[in-house]
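Entries read sequence, tokenised fold; example below:

***
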Amino acid sequence: MLSQRVPTKIAKATCRASSARAFSLIELLVVIAMIAILAAILFPVFALVREDSRKTTCMAHMHDIWVAVQQYKLDHNNYPATLYDYAELPNGSYYNGSGTPVAMNQATQRPLFALSAGKYLKDPSLFACPDILPTQQTDVTTAVYPTAPGVLLSGQVPNRFSPANPAYFYKIDSYDVGPQVTAAGAQVLNNGALVIELHYSLDWTGTAGPGDAPNQLKYPTPPDDKTVLTWCTYHVSTAKSNVIPVLFLSGTVKAVPTNQFVPKGPVGFSL
């Protein structure tokens, strides 16, 4: 009799243990829903943290460039025509739309790298914003002027280049040029392609004299806190951020809301 009851008890215990480990369909759905809610909350937070890190890196790059510009100014008594360089051909001349430009890191006329094997800067990668989309070292672009009060017409080109011979910049160079965005943070497109605008210039107005804006690098002593050295729009264009890092001649790098900086531009905006 005892031997007959033992299997029955074991079977009942096994059945109870199996029932205790099982989840009902409702419980599983509740767990899945909770995981989905947590993911919806946490993923944007993680993306925001990553973007804040990239923005901080970009602003650190800009500060390093500012230090190099100040050293260049002390040595030459003026500011460089570009922060990095215009696109070059293998023979050292500037690219004009014909031929194949050398890679950006092989350009030879880089003003902030030219002396004493990197007297001012040593790492060309400083000029690539962390938010820039993958770009080849040989990719080049023309640039228009920002559409802001006091700035040259966007169809014009930088000094020393004629409209028939526009300036070409390396696309990776995120601080001489960058994607144009609207005050609302939208990309500006031309036939589906990003419009690239000038972000560093000695002359924004094309004029000179008492009535001209004094906060331009073409003048010997522009006001530090009112003179924009450069800015970066990749955080808005690529990462859909709502702020633009702006570097001033004072060395201050400030994250400025897009709708405050874009309408005023480099001549109208100040700290």
Notes: The helical segments are 2-21, 25-76, 234-237, 258-261, 265-268.
